[in-house]
User: Which sequence fits this backbone?
């Protein structure tokens, strides 16, 4: 006797049905997708099917299921007597008995039609999923290309703004140079005509008449300005060129710092102050500053104070205080030295050595001639200031010189 083939199971109604194990492995109808034109918002639900289900899988599944149906048709279970065993009621179509037993093929015909109809539905669903995956890939590619174009446009816009900013800075610097050069020429003429006369107080009206170039660039050079009058403009310091020149750097530094402080309303912006300091340098000093103010350098000096600090590092000796202390230690007033010259030398060295104000009297007294120290002993109290002591010492020194001349 032939038995029921593998993958086919017998039911209690004496009909052979295919096993459901293969069919359960590929059931994607639960997705409820209508057509390929539907817009899927979230692809996470169908991601397993997109990566695992193909048309070949569907074909293979249905080949297996049709095989089950054909096996069931070939190996049929006859409607025999109720008392017969299962083995006695199972035959192939070629071995059917001729005892009048009826074969029920209704179930197998319906099963075959159902499987064939579902086969087309499954194939359409797989094609629909393929279209959805292709649409999602196209959308992602479009979004990526749009994002890349946006980044490129932003970079171009930033580069354009940076170039415009540099151009505006260059224009402002050129205007300031023109302004300061024009002011220097007019001031030189005025000082040559009125060298001994005190500078008059300049009102806003007189300033506007004598300096039209500054009025033309008012919006660029200043943010706010008094509507009544400007501060009286003091003379410009000489142009500093090198340490070997006639102008000492520390003297020039004091003058230009005072100029920027007193006439701060004439140079209200950092760019204006920086341009003015650069225009008051020349020769070796200008060449030394070239590396610190190069246009386009991100580390370039941005303020006048930074430029003055660089010049101080170049032209001021960092050991100046120690040198002044050594010179002050060796300073002595001889009998025939002039008192005023000695006082000037002492004051300069004391300032450079940074002697405390309360120590000035002691440091000065110990360097006077012995005879002068004896006559100044009565003026060495704690309540005596250095100005009082030095003035009294000048008088006593003069009297001693007169007495020596009389003798």
Assistant:
């Amino acid at each position: 006797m032939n038995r029921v083939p593998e993958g086919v199971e017998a039911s209690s109604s004496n009909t052979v049905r295919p096993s459901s194990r293969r069919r359960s492995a590929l059931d994607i109808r639960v997705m409820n997708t209508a057509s390929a034109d539907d817009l899927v918002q979230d692809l996470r639900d169908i991601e397993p099917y997109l990566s695992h289900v193909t048309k070949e899988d569907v074909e293979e599944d249905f080949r297996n299921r049709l095989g089950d149906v054909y096996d069931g048709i070939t190996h049929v279970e006859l409607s025999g007597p109720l008392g017969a065993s299962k083995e006695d009621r199972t035959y192939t179509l070629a071995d059917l008995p001729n005892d009048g037993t009826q074969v029920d093929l209704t179930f197998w015909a319906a099963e075959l039609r159902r499987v064939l109809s579902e086969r087309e539905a499954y194939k359409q669903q797989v094609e629909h999923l393929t279209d959805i995956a292709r649409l999602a890939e196209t959308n992602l590619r479009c979004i990526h290309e749009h994002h890349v174009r946006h980044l490129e446009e932003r970079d171009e816009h930033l580069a354009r703004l940076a170039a415009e900013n540099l151009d505006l800075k260059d224009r402002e610097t050129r205007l300031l140079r023109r302004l300061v050069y024009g002011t220097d020429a007019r001031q030189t003429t005025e000082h040559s005509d009125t060298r001994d006369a005190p500078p008059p107080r300049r009102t806003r009206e007189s300033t506007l008449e004598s300096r039209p170039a500054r009025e033309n660039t008012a919006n660029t050079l200043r943010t706010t300005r008094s509507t009544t009058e400007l501060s009286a403009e003091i003379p410009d310091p000489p142009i500093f060129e090198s340490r070997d020149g006639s102008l000492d750097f520390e003297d020039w530094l004091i003058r230009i710092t005072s100029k920027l402080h007193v006439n701060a309303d004439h140079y209200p912006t950092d760019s204006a102050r920086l341009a003015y300091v650069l225009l008051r340098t020349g020769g070796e000093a200008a060449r030394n500053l070239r590396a610190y103010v190069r246009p386009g350098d991100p580390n370039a000096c941005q303020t006048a104070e930074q430029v003055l600090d660089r010049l101080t590092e170049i032209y001021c000796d960092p050991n100046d205080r120690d040198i002044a202390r050594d010179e002050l230690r060796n300073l002595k007033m001889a009998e025939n030295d002039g008192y005023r010259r000695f006082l000037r030398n002492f004051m300069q060295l004391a300032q450079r050595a940074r002697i405390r104000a309360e120590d000035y009297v002691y440091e000065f007294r110990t360097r006077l001639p012995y005879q002068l120290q004896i006559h100044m002993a009565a003026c060495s109290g704690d309540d005596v200031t250095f100005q009082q002591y030095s003035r009294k010492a000048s008088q006593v020194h003069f009297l001693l010189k007169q007495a020596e001349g009389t003798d």
